[in-house]
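Subject: sequence -> structure tokens, single chain

Hey, anyone have a minute? Need the predicted structure for the following. Not urgent.
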Amino acid sequence: EVQLVESGGGSVQAGGSLSLSCEASGYAYRSYCIGWFRQYPGKERERVATWDTDDETVYAESVKGRFTLSRIKANHTLYLQINNLEVSDTAMFYCVSQRGNCPLRDSNWDYWGKGTLVIVST
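Reply:
Had a minute. Here:
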């Protein structure tokens, strides 16, 4: 059974940094795309960043320069470093995964974590 467990969210002040973690289990790590979505209250989830099976990373335009993906393959963990946090970053962040290459359609992700909440205040 594929499981994605996020951690690292919390309340921070604007300008600060956070590192979100996603620990994956239950599958052959190298055969799956993995990434992050975020969801604002009352809004649809939106793709933030992905790490594909060929190690290509892709970021949403809105987060380039402040968000960075990294991973430790030995412990099957994907990290999302967020720097210079803005109030507008306040959202629930979800780890996602899909067998094979990263899907083009946001609706085609099979596996979702339960999310970790990021709250940024002034």
